[in-house]
Amino acid sequence: MIEDRAPTRYEAAQKVTGAARYQGEVRAAGMLHAALVTAPMPSARVLGIDTARARALAGCVEVLTHENALRIPPAAFLTLLQEPVVHFAGQPVALVLAETPETARAAAALVEVRYAPMPAVTALEQARDEAYAPRTAGLTATDSRRGEPEAALAAAAVRLDHCYTTPTHNHLAIEPQVVLADWNGSDLLVQTPSQAVFAHRAGLARCFGLDIERVRVISPYLGGGFGSKGGAWFPCLVLGCLAAKQLGRPVRLELLRAQMFTLVGRRQETVQQLKIGAARDGRLAALLHDTVAQTSTYGEYADPVATPTRMMYACPNVATTHRLVRVNAPQPNPARAPGEGPGSFALESAIDELAYKLDLDPIELRRRNFADHDQHAGLPWSSNGLLECYRAGAEAFGWARRPSKPGTLSDGRHALGWGMAGACYPAYRIASQAAVRINLDGRVEVRCGTQDMGSGTYTVLAQLAAEALGVPYAAVDVALGDTLLPEGPYSGGSMATASFTPAVEDAARRLRRDLIARAVADPRSPMHGRQPDQVSIADGVMRAGNRSEPLIELLARVAPQGIEAAANAAPNTKPAHSYYGFGAVFAEVRVDPDLGEIRVTRLTGAYATGRILNPLLARSQFVGGLIWGIGMALHEKTVMDKNLGRIVNDNLADYLIPVHADMPRFDIHMLTEDEPHLGSGGVKGIGMLGTCGTAAAIANAVFHATGRRIRDLPIRLEQLL
Amino acid sequence: MQQVAYHRAASEDAALALAANHPGAMFIAGGTDMLQLSKQGVVPTQLIDISRLPLDRIEPRAGALRIGALARLADVADHPDVRRDWPALAQAIAASASPQIRNLATVGGNLLQRTRCGYFRSADLPCNKREPGSGCAARDGENRLHAIFGTSPHCVATHASDLAVALLALQASVHVRGHDSARVLPIAELFRLPGDTPQRDSALGAGEMIVSVEVSRSAAARRSCYLKVRDRASFEFAVVSVAAALEIEDGVIRSARLAAGGVGTVPWRLVASERALAGARAEPAAFAAAAARAADGAQPLSQNGFKLELLRRTVRRALEGLTDA
Ligand SMILES: Cc1cc2nc3c(=O)[nH]c(=O)nc-3n(C[C@H](O)[C@H](O)[C@H](O)COP(=O)(O)OP(=O)(O)OC[C@H]3O[C@@H](n4cnc5c(N)ncnc54)[C@H](O)[C@@H]3O)c2cc1C
Ligand code: SF4
After folding, report:
1. Which Pfam families match (chain A) (predicted)?
2. Closest residue CA from atom 21 of ligand 1
């Protein structure tokens, strides 16, 4: 089993012993603590803010409001404390700075804000008729069209037309967002859990009119992010830096759990109308997928919800649209499996519905509609293991034993159901730099300014360098999460690993070539005079034929100061292929037919996502993704009171996520797949894929168990009574 | 965040004296609810810590079980006598919260924990229970998890305790002490309907402390159970729950006690269902008849109408479970 040989986590010992310092733990001499005063209503003008009582509290140093906060230039993000307008409940209207966190919060409670409430849209359905087309849907076009979808639908032998809805979610990483901002003259040091240290550096430099070299962002460890520690965190991050600049002291701002529901993004609510036209043999004739989703009144973001419908299946006539409705609610942004997560719920549920309508096995129906190229992009797949995923997943799950009729499997009093779904997520990569260095003592350093969200980036960086250079994994040290390092990719869109892998491998190979070149040129080396291609390095020892020499001996002679190599890897600007990871997910659910309780008892996932660098880490990514899928299917929902425009479950007791007792047995299969075209060293992303299709597989299993088709997430027990 | 004065009581009497001398002071036992409430802005100004007092004994006696108010939930649920002779108690606790919380939380604190209504738990939303006169946002708001029994125009929040429901079915009594008073009340009388004073959850007077809870031995207690329906497998309050206790002799139900959670503003006795059972043969037909009456008198809100049928089904399932082999 390869898993036995996979290196375990690079930083495991630091994390279990507490030696790893998260950014919430760092302190600076003389620092001030910040507390936010937030608006209690979803739309208002601020008429006045009385800070006298707050300031009078001993230890309260300053209260910043739109009246006295430093100006920052208008920007694409919400600039806080710049104008007296409230766009959503929970928006900061003042920032209190004090000597202790307790004083800051006590003073915040004493700030008196007078508001003139304004009309508010507090739910998507209130403004459905004002839906508009955003500029883009994620990184893709807002709408798509090929063939004659309406005509083909009208002419189709079998038709389906249903509405699927998914609610707002919050990311809720275990570690809250926090920043310690420290100015030294016009140099800004920012210590914060960041999914994108370089983007944060560039953004902060722009805000404060600095050269980027003046700003340093450090983020060695993250306690999860899921999309909430990139751009979504930026408005509050800026606020912390602004306060530190204005007060001339370091400032620490940490969000409360409730504030993580309003200030660092959310997965947008969707309403998806999906129409399918098909021939009697199941071949798709038309797909129309119209999505409406929530955005804020001050910003625009649309998840690419209908994108799986564009490319997952072969179909000549496809139309997709994305529309947004402005609601006085927090700004949505990408959350794990943005777009494809909720979009695949609708598509993969609808395909299941079609299978039952045609009395076809859901896998057979999908096989018949396999797309042998990306019909949306008009490009060949760089690699596509979907058929193999269906096969391997079905075999592992025992799908062949599935009775086709719903409501036939049972386990005592409980109904059992089996469901499956396909999964896809685009494989992206962006530019990355990396440097690899070997020192006189034989220790190797990898330097790459990307981040480790807790998913294993340290480990993978060390592994890549160790393998490409030929040194033991334990000899490698990794530096990441710092803008002083070579610029690495941001952590998002499942693309960090595919982006830095070619850069690290290239740098390590350059270093290897350099070492070999020096050895063969060195008269004192046992390799002297050999052809470089006859020389190999393994376990820190150079070898040619029966001669060998440890690298440290070579270094001592030729480069006592160590040797470094750097590389830069950038993606093709004009790709000739379409890049996706694919998978198939199979769910078994147990439903109490009287009481409606649903538990997932088994989840099997088969995935084809290129080269798997570390099966232990990859498995944990897939399991994490599947757990998000369980949450999407059965638990997660941010509940907004429409009368008040306020979130009423903004804590982890009332916002349900799956707990251990909700975990099924996870059976993960990672298929061997060659990915020759992406230029990523064979890597495709894996972080999102586990969440794609999973909610549909569970809902499909619920249908198989009960004969009830649930199209609104999360599935609650009352929907099954 | 406001300043809180903290007193650690050295003895039961000292605790009661402190309470008498500090109007508005509250006891803190395991603190699992109290600390949450204070973070959520529902803050007392004075805390009297009673967690170290020796009121944590679990004493099975000839006629009854006496549980000290400071007994930890985990200890009660793990007690072999409790598991054998009062299974509904052990089951109700096992289905409550999480192991970590059960290790800290006490019986007295559990009974007096405050509602989980999201409006109550947010510092600045309209809520008559937290801020009398501010209105009840749940009535016309998010009320899927709210009550169908015992509601008033002023409050519709459920009582959240699982243990209280089981204790109600087992007809427990609550021993209460004040600075210079002592009384025993049936558990049903510990809880107050919201009426027009929803800010008062319990019948305890100022400075009164629960010292113990007592349940008698009975055939019904031995044949008792607790069934909880919830939105996830663990660590979640009841959507609906039922505690049932039956005394059956020669196939005939001599006495029946049923109480429900997740449905009432206080733990709710299902009197009509109990009546339907008394004297009937312990058979599915009687259980169905009792279940049919379970939601009598219920007043659903905009989002919780499903609780009526769910309650009927839960009653039926609980009763069937008590007679299955
Ligand atoms: C995440 C979470 C999930 C939970 N899930 C459940 C669940 O599923 N089911 C369930 O039943 N409960 C649940 N609970 C509630 C938990 O059981 C209670 O918080 C706990 O039982 C309270 O006991 P305590 O000793 O910690 O009380 P404290 O927090 O110390 O006190 C609670 C209240 O009781 C008062 N008090 C305490 N002891 C006495 C006394 N002897 N006399 C007079 N007044 C007293 C205090 O003044 C305070 O008002 C959950 C709690 C949490 C945090
Ligand atoms: S139901 Fe009761 S606790 Fe909830 S908002 Fe209304 S008054 Fe407050």
Report:
1. Ald_Xan_dh_C (PF01315), MoCoBD_1 (PF02738), MoCoBD_2 (PF20256)
2. B110
Top mutation candidate among B35, B49, B112 for ligand 1, by most atoms within 8 Å of CB? B112
3-state secondary structure of A260: helix
pLDDT, tens digit (0-9, with 9 covering 90-100), for A83-105: 999 999 999 999 999 999 999 99
Nearest CA to ligand 1 atom 17: B110
Is B226 a pocket residue for ligand 1 (Cβ < 6 Å)? no
Residue length of chain A: 721
Core vs surface per residue B283-322: b (16+ CB within 10 A) or e: eeebbeebbebbbeebebbeebebbbbbbbbbbbbbbbeb
| pLDDT(A390) > 90 | yes
ipTM, 2 decimals?
0.96
Cα B22 to Cα B38: distance, rounded to the nearest angstrom: 18
pTM (global) more than 0.90 = yes
Structural domains of chain A, with CATH: 16-119+174-224+229-261 (3.90.1170.50), 335-428+575-720 (3.30.365.10), 432-569 (3.30.365.10)
Determine the residue type at B23. Answer: P
> Is the pLDDT confidence value at A1 over 50?
no
Average pLDDT of the segment spanning A278-288? 98
Distances (CA, A) of B104 to A5, A21, A651, B75: 42, 29, 21, 10
Contact B141 A642 (CB under 8 A): yes
Report yes or no: A599 at the B interface, CB cutoff 8 Å: yes
Q: Whose CA is nearest to atom 18 of ligand 1?
A: B110
The verdict on a CB contact (< 8 Å) between A660 and B126 is no
Return phi, psi of residue A325, to 5°: -120, 135
Q: How far does residue B137's CA lie from ligand 2's centre (Å)?
A: 6
Largest Cα span, chain A: 85
Q: Do A659 and B235 touch (CB under 8 A)?
A: yes
Alpha carbon distances (Å) from B126 to A36, A327, B137, B239, B247: 21, 22, 6, 23, 45
Average pLDDT taken over every residue of chain B: 96
Least confident range from A312-316, B38-42, B234-238, B303-307: namely: B38-42
Could you tell me the domains of chain B? 5-51 (3.30.43.10), 220-323 (3.30.390.50)
Residue B126 Cα: closest atom of ligand 2: 5
Q: Which ligand has its closest atom nearest to the C-alpha of B67?
A: 1
Distance between CA atoms of A685 and A706, rounded to whole angstroms?
35
Going along A609-709, which residue ranges are E strands?
640-641, 646-647, 665-670
DSSP B71: -
State the distance from the centre of ligand 1 to the C-alpha of B246, rounded, in angstroms.
28
Query: What is the rounded distance in angstroms from the CA atom of residue B206 to the CA atom of residue B318?
Result: 38
Q: Binning pLDDT at 50, 70 and 90, where does residue B325 land?
A: low
Q: How far is the CA of A94 from the centre of ligand 1 (A)?
A: 35
Whose atoms come closest to the Cα of B107: which ligand? 1
